[in-house]
Amino acid sequence: MDALASLGQGFLVALEPTKLLYALIGVFLGTAVGVLPGIGPAMTVALLLPVTFKLDPTGSLIMFAGIYYGGMYGGSTTAILINTPGESASMITALEGNRMARAGRGGPALATAAIGSFVAGCIATIALALFSPSLVELAVKFGPEDYFALMVLAFVTVSATFGDSPLRGLTSLFLGLVLGLIGIDTLTGQARLSFGVPELLDGVEVTTLAVGLFAVGEAMFVASRHRFGGDDIIPVRGSIWMTREDWRRSWKPWLRGTALGFPIGALPAGGAEIPTFLSYTIEKRLTKHPEEFGKGAIEGVAGPEAANNASAAGTLMPLLTLGLPTSATAAILLAGFQQYGLNPGPLLFAERPDLVWGLIASLFVANVMLVVLNLPLVGLWVRLLAIPQPWLYAGILVFAAMGTIAANPSPVELVMLLAFGALGFLMRRYDYPIAPVIVGLILGPLAEAQLRRALSISLGDPLILIQSPIAAGLLLLALIALIAPFALRGLSRFRGSED
Amino acid sequence: MRILGRGLRLAALAAIAAAGLMTSAFAQPELKIMAPAAPGGGWDQTARSMQQALVASGAAKSVQVTNVPGAGGTVGLAQLVNASKGDPNQLMVNGFVMVGAILTNKSPVTLDQVTPIARLTGEYLAIVVPADSPHKSAKDLAAALKADPAKVTWAGGSAGGVDHIAAALFAKAVGADPTKINYIPFSGGGEALAALLGGRVTAGVSGYGEFEGQIKAGKLRLLAVTAPNRLPNVDAPTLKEQGIDLDIANWRSVVAPPGLTAEQRRALIDTIDKMAKSPAWQEILKQKGWDDAYLSGDPFAAFLKEEQARVADVLKSVGLVK
């Protein structure tokens, strides 16, 4: 109960009127910058961090929390409205969210994303407050072989993003894996597939690929269809708020997403993408409306958004308790701490409890501010879709190019964006799913690095991959996920023939 | 309102300071500093800290920081050498990592082409093992390494970076074969630390700051620091004390484009000298926990040459560069 009392103290600090104002300013700035495609929360925070340096430590951390959540939500907003994920973790949101927006259900999609983020953020923050010390011990036990098993599980489940044809899905996935090979090999430092272009040595930026395939490709596709009328976007159909039915279909995905996002986010190399993939897969399997998936199912927005936000709170766990920055944003937060001469780590909870609990409380406050600021804006955001298509897509192209250039000011990056846009256009034209390319780019290099690290540690003995109970358990899950659909289909066919 | 008030006060102070300086005959340059990395990293922080200190100390009238990320800084280096040639107001932050990246990335431009200005900071590395490790000293680790270099797994930062080079130099110094070391690169400090805390690897090598919290909490044992002399406030022997002839630091420095006249070079060195002596810069060093390793002008140019030769030699011996 000690933790709860400290949290209460934290709230007293975070709820001062000036602090609330900082939170509001943070959320506003974060959302404003975060809506630029290609600029994810980490970049948003890095760019805006100097703004917070003028404040005292608590004020600055509160504003930081606001910027962070604002940046994340900004990424989801563009994913839903204009099919342009601002960061890799909101890519899954674009799959169903944008379909909903085109069918006039942008309001409920934005609302379920905001409220789901809020619910997940709150639950995950409570979990952070209560379980940090014990969970973190478990998290560092995860070795490379366990991560590899987790990646295998993720690979097996991404087939949910494949659409109708497994062959086309696999083709897309392998395209992503090849793109993932580009750049300096992390284990040997040798360049692969870089063709002497120095900008390629760092590999393909996930956001450049996502913005290119989703936004630029989409714009080209729409332009090519425009003469024939194209498919109409309906800005608003029915209520712009969530209906009773929407709530009923959203709350379970929110909770499941949180349950996936927080623990995986807390793993030192877990990240935010894998829980969103897993959440989408689970929702697709569990939904009572499988026919809606791919056409705008609200569960496909609610689950991944909750998972994304919960994993963000999860990454704070190793940061605060061990001083391990496990994501780009956490690394920047670490820099923020150091600005005040604080070193996150095992001693921070003991030395500066006021700051730690102040930060945790301000995460709550920032979450509330996010909902307060953004729910009234939903109506305004969906109006964006009423802009005539040629203008809307011209605007998207401008923002896509601007975001990419802002993140990485190099002509090579712009050429890549356009090349991926052309690729996205061709894939749409010939009906190949787009999401697996990005999944391949994210998971491929991770899985490779973890596999090779595991084998390096075991001195080349492959048995290490199944010796750890965590790895063995995850691989078993992956095997079940792989076989179950066939087995079930076989079983039902068997039953069918009996009748 | 408080922000606004403070901002106005600052502006007023700056105006007074500027007016005061304008009456003195000192010409204040308007500088541009390029950080050849994305916002948030070490080089970027160095560039932005310089910006603060240069302006606060009055060494420069204004400073603009730009980011040119990519390929261990070699993308930025190419831009400095090609596009900024002869520009007396342009600077670039760089460091030890770039020396290695130029070689591993087969960069067409090298540090031989830039105008060296000054070394700013340095961070010594720490060699650590998990708290329950059988190795109690650097000598124990050296013995294990000599017995079979492949069985000692090292965790540290990216391949070809300063941590990797330190591990190879350690092996070489104790008489083990550096080509056989089993170095496992991790991205970012967090993952390497997790591998150490989880007892997955034999030893870790990285900046002392990365491990400090865990060492103080008793989860990691600090075997040695790679400094020539004992560090203040760090309770650990140097490698040299333990009979291993090795010192290495991850330094950061600032360089200017090629094609400058001797006067232009002198002016830049004077400006940075002034910044390094200012209380503002000293305060930043303290805040960020960076060690002052200031060295400017010709001695720095000579140091840069030596480090390039040393790194090239090591990278060849571990097989990263042919």
The name of the CATH architecture of the largest domain in chain B is: 3-Layer(aba) Sandwich
Q: Largest chain-chain contact?
A: A-B, 56 and 56 residues
What's the number of helices of chain B? 11
Spans of at least 5 consecutive residues with low confidence of chain A = none
Helix content of chain B: 40-55%
Sheet/helix structural class of chain B: alpha/beta
Gap between N and C termini of chain B, in Å?
61 Å
What's the number of extended β-strand segments of chain B? Answer: 10
CATH topology of the largest domain in chain B: D-Maltodextrin-Binding Protein, domain 2
Tell me, briefly, the overall form of chain B: globular
Radius of gyration of chain A: 22 Å
Mean model confidence by pLDDT of chain B: 82
Radius of gyration computed on alpha carbons of chain B:
21 Å
Oligomer: heterodimer
| Record field, number of beta strands of chain A | 2
Distance between the termini of chain A: 59 Å
Q: Fraction of residues of chain A in helices?
A: over 70%
CATH superfamily of the largest domain in chain B: Bordetella uptake gene, domain 1
Number of spatially distinct domains of chain B? 2
Biggest sheet, spatial arrangement of strands of chain A: 1-2
SSE string of chain B, helices as H and strands as E = HEHEHEHEHEHEHEHEEHHEH
